[in-house]
Known about the structure:
Elements: E1 38-43, H1 49-61, E2 72-73, E3 76-77, E4 85-87, H2 100-107, E5 109-116, H3 118-121, H4 124-136, E6 141-146, E7 171-173, E8 179-183, E9 187-190, H5 197-210, H6 214-242, H7 244-279, H8 285-300, H9 309-328, H10 332-352, H11 357-376, H12 380-400, H13 405-424, H14 428-448, H15 453-472, H16 476-497, H17 501-520, H18 524-541, H19 549-568, H20 572-592, H21 597-616, H22 620-636, H23 642-662, H24 666-679, H25 688-700, H26 704-717
Parallel strand pairs: 1-4, 1-5, 5-6, 6-9
Antiparallel strand pairs: 2-3, 7-8
Helix pairs in contact: 2-4, 6-7, 7-8, 7-9, 8-9, 9-10, 9-11, 10-11, 11-12, 11-13, 12-13, 13-14, 13-15, 14-15, 15-16, 15-17, 16-17, 17-18, 17-19, 18-19, 19-20, 19-21, 20-21, 21-22, 21-23, 22-23, 23-24, 23-25, 24-25, 25-26
Amino acid sequence: MREAALDSPGRAATALAKPRQTSPIRRLGRRPQPSQRYFAFLSYSHADAELADWLHEAIENFRVPRKLVGQLTENGPIPRRLQPIFRDRGELAASGSLSEEIEQALVGSRYLIVLCSPAAATSRWANLEIESFKHFHPDGLVLAAIVDGEPFASEIPGREAEECFPAALRVEYDQRGRPTRRRAEPIAADLREGRDGRQGGLLKIIAGMLGVGLDDLVQRETHRRHRRLAFLAAASVAGMAVTSGLAVFAFNARDAARDQRREAESLIGFMLGDLRDKLEPIGELDTLDGVGARVLAYYRKQDKKELTDASLIQRSRALTLLGEIAQRRGDMDGALHHYREAMAGTAELVSRAPEDPKRLYDHAQNVFWAGWVARDRGQMEQAEAAMREYRRLAERMIAAEPANAEWRMEQGNANVNLGIVLLDRRRFAEASRRFAESLRTIDGLTAAEPANAAYQRSLADSLAWVADAQQSEGRLEEAIVQRQRHVRLLDRLIASSGGDVLFRQRLVSAYRALGNVYASQGRLDPAIRSLRTALAESDKLIPREPDNSKWLDAAAKTRLSLAEALLDDRQIAEAASQTEAGCRLFEGLLAKDRSVAPWRAGLRDCHSMRARIALATGATDEALRHAGQALDAAESVKSSDSVGDRYMLVRVQLLVGDIHRKAGDGLSARSAWQGGLRALPMGVQERPGEMADRAELLRRLGRAAEAEPLAARLSAMGFRKTS
């Protein structure tokens, strides 16, 4: 499992601010010589007292495997028990220094264990205890146990409140017990569900204190447990020989336990199946999160080696659910962690029964989601490989059960998702073939089962992507027809489902896309109406799940699209208002995770719109400032469509040149336009808007003859965009 402290995302490489050289710790006249009274000192915020109770008891009750006792490691000889552990059970006095009892306990402790959470990071007393321990034990071992939050989040703008490491834990101390400017990298265990978990984290902490490898400790602990079970089995056999009554009692207890387990797993099946199907359409994200967490908590109490295949399947489904929820909330690292853990479980299940289509289906879901995270991060080779594997798994499902409509639908979905990645990679013709193949499959299945909501969602998605491919190829009228069909389908589905949020979120994107196609034809009135409708639908969604990153992303994009259409229609004041509202949403999303390329691209578009609005009002200095920020953002974005990112850079260069021209600086304007022309990708298929930008650059540079063929092609497509 990943050690959060050593592999935390987004940790900046900036130098730490110089730590203060003094603290309110009451210093002794000279540093006392440590004489071990306690095996470890447990430091924590009292907000985490419940977990501190558990960890304290678990460490003191842990029996070191017999074969390890007495071995000499770099931490000294291994003891039989890890006792005693010191912890402060009362509130500290409201004074400026630690009490003498606490300070002497720190002096007399061999190790320091810190429960890390945002509460601990802001606790003055937790920080003082760490400072004091490091002062008295410059070479002492400090172990971090993460309860909540993220290590080093304080170095990421906008995420400071997530910091879980107290300040003194984040810096090294020198041999004289003084803080330095060097970052510390404490040994860390992550006690949260979905990470190391309590048991895994406990073993990691103990391995760190003993100076042994985690694998060695886990194996010996497993062997010890097996020996204990073997002993209990032998004792049971002897007991049965003495009295049959005890045997009958044991069998009854076993049967009762089995019945309880069956009942629990039946309930889990309901939670991951019917209950999820009921909660997801009404937007109960928190409740779904609780469902997944409770299922995992149940399985963590079981021995994985003793879980049935059915139990392993349900465990993997719970992990997939938690991954989806983390992804909706913008936690891409947490999502990927869950998906990979789930994928390991489903891959094992497939290896046990390679032709079981249900196992192939479960595995395919995790392959898809891991690939989608890669796409969001601009890792397109990984994304395409994942989508091709997803399609291959769908074909294996059909080979196993050719008449199964669900597997045929899965093949249709696999073609859509492969087509999306191909569209991102500008293989438009290949993407169109995949979308058309998918639409044929899904259209037929939906006609056969019109009441199947999942099929209807797939049909809506397929229509959307067919329209996207048509628009990319310049088939604008066909794209409008497809978008109108898409909108009608979703309106009907929302009405018949009583407001299913999964259909409504698709309706937001459908109206936004329809508005953008109208705008590309210069039809501003229907464009603005469609975009306002998209925004109204978005405003109905967000109050249900304010943290749903998909919905926030859709709302931000809709506001920027509306702002652009309004600006083209000379409604400058409202365009500015919509721009700022959209930009605030993107800034909030980036505060969650700066690795998501579409959100960084959104910030680039924010700066561009601000520059265009300033230019429209004649504020050229302000326009240049925003355009410079747009250039910086454009150069840093690497999304799923890297060629598209270069065209957006070209569009910003075109804008910079226009601003310089408006300011009367023809030389700088020409330089910016030439830079844009040099940045144009060569030998790639262009979307209509990109072709229009190329033509505009050529015109501005006095090369009208070269622009004419492009203008003719755009005219044939019906492209009339005014900006």
